[in-house]
Input
Amino acid sequence: MNLSLHTTILAIAVPLLGGFAAPLWAKLHRRVRDLWVTLVLAFTAAMVIGVAVQVLTQGIQVYTLGASYPRDSVVQGGFPIRIVLVVDGMGALMGLISVLVAAAGLVYAWWYLKEEDGKTLGLTLGLLLWAGILGMAYTGDLFNFFVFLEVTSIAACALIGYRTWTARGVEAAFKTMVMYTAGGLLVLLAVAVLYGEYGALNLAYLSKLLQGSPVDKIALGLLLGGLLMKAGAVPLHFWAPDAYGEAPAQAVVLLVANTQVSLYGLMRFLFTLYGELNDPGIGWLVVALGVLTLVVAALMAVVQTDLGRLVAFGAVSQIGFMLLGFGVAYTVVVAQPEYGLVALRGGIFHMLNDAAAIGLLFLCVGAVERAAGSRDIRHLGGLAHDLKWTAGFFFLGAMALAGIPPLNGFASKYLIYESSFRLFPLLSALAILASILLLAVFVRAFQGTFLGPRLTRPEPVPVGMLWAMGVLALAVLALGLFPDLIVRYVINPAALALWNGRLMYLRAVLGG
Output
């Protein structure tokens, strides 16, 4: 079997099947389960990296299920008759982001989770969530996008609430389930509307057929509503701080990628599916929601005393920065000014930076809770005396999140500031003010948690958890110190795939 021909489908199938098999191996012995999860993690990461290399070196990758040769798109009379997976630069980047957070989260889980606290279930759900994220990023079929959306929703809600002995976790899972269900129903309704009008589900084929009718616009509104709801944009954000704040730490890093893949879907539908029917008003709507999200979340972070919820509101604010970049780009994509592409690069780059910085902060929160038994900043203090590495990692993540140079958050935020200023200067001013506010909030959180006199004697943090945090810390430093290389070889192909790659996407699937 030539694995290079099947990397795309294996990247989805292996974690999906591996997750279901993990409880069976746990029946034999927990070491067998851990070895199995390690193998699944390594193999899936290799497949995802392989897909990215193929995309960057050979162009858009099309995998056709049921075809005699998987790299051929089966089209008859211009109509695709098979379900296809389509990976361009943007899909490849989303896969790489998922590898970064999945590797850190699953390795962290081995030392963070206790057997009696549902370790097997936590690992299983993590693999299933990862499979769903990759499915959303790689699918070229609208209905299968919905299917994988539901896979991520079920796995995410279970990860948030499976610790039933914590009432707040169950409550957070219920809130998330309600919002995910509503968002999923909106997406399903959009799928039904488009299928009823055109009798097709393939994204490339639908993009070729769309005429901009009122029905098409209704479907777009439903897609945007469902995905913005799942992404946690204000005013549909109230589930996100609870979910991020109450889920176990190893799960939150995957939840961050789960949120981002919803933004990926938003961009895929705007730039690819509806790319020929661009409406600047939609771009301004996304811009407005982005600004509202980053400002409201930053203000809410000010009043938090729970370290987990404080970081959670910081995470929601970063969704606003991404939406701002995407919205600026979509507003001007028809005219194709250079600053529109800069905005798109900034928003995409910030997805990668956010995964590293926010993931690092949440792993630090988990280490603090495990070591000190509390996340209440009012009852913590002086932890840096005993948890030096954790304190250093938290400070690094906080400064990156606030956009302090030369860390990674500055590189992507600068692109967003520059481009949004070109569109409307007030947008850039509000974004900068929100970053300053977040800097003040996280300085206060660091001082209250790690500095000052020792108020409690924490337990040592397991070395494995420190290694997982170290991986994300290295990513934060590397992305900040070498932004030109990252933008040139990783971010730019993803941005161009959306900015002017629609026709190449259609040709890759439909031929011609």
Summary: The chain has a mean pLDDT of 91.
